[in-house]
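Annex B. Sample input.
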Amino acid sequence: MKKTFIKITSAALILTMLAGCSASGAKETTTSSEETTAVTTTEATTTTTTTEATTTTTTTETTKESIVYNCESEIPADYKRMYKGGKTGTVEKITYTAKDYIGDGEGVKKNAYVYLPAGYNPKGKYNVIYLMHGIGGSECEWGLNQPQSQLKNILDNLIGNGDIEPLIVVTPNGKALGCKHSQDMESFYNFGYELRNDLIPYIEKHYATYAKYSKKGYDLSKTREHRAMAGLSMGGMQTINIGIGECMDLFSWFGAFSAAPTSNAASKNSQNIMESDFTIDYFYNICGTNDDIALASAEAAVKDLPEICEDIVPNENFTWQKEPGGHDWPIWYLGFYNFAKIAFAK
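Annex B, continued. Sample output.
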């Protein structure tokens, strides 16, 4: 992968986000191995109380303003609660080694959370979504570290109700902490090296994916259709700039939720897509109509793609969805809900 170094001189002005790791996270039991592996299993069985929603609507209208393919504008209320139809998934905490690819190559320990579906079979084959956080977050921001996790509830219900295939979801720390930078923003832009060389191989060695892992190296592109990358805000930028811009050989499904202002413009995205040897199965985007942080830049990144890129076709492999809301969790959870249904529908 071509190395690109980007300096951001106004990072403090880019985003302000709710982030975080709850100090009252789930109980953990840690074990170690020679490869700096620490795996912790968390049974999330606490019921999350959610106010009853009203009507769930499905939009199929296609216009220049909102290009939407079978995407709901509201998550069903029951999908936000703990799944009641049977067994639920589990969450594991992992620790892997990430290297400093733009420095001295020194290794740094990184954490991530891994969602495993109910009935997970270590000898099976599962699709994987790599789900990224925002500028102020970490591997904990999507809440898989907490006993009450709305993301986990959504996954358990989607899988339990037969909406999507059982899958694995990984929420890593999207900052390349192994890199020695003068500016922290660069850690987001250099995460692609870690994603390709450390995180994905770790997941494919220790979990049941479609890839045939080999410590001597293997062709990740052969199973790209079984991997997806998505994220909120700065994680949406990473999905666009790193996922589509650098790693289309690794992924074929992409989801950007309120993509950050530093996302590539549509002209650059079109160029990256057209010049790639690989195709996009689907590129889903969502943003709130009252989002004064990301709406303008998110539109500039993707809205006009169907007009300038012949490989992007509305209602076939592209969605641009706008819904009432701001730069916040209702939009991001809705984005994940819709994206999961698109990428790995049953």
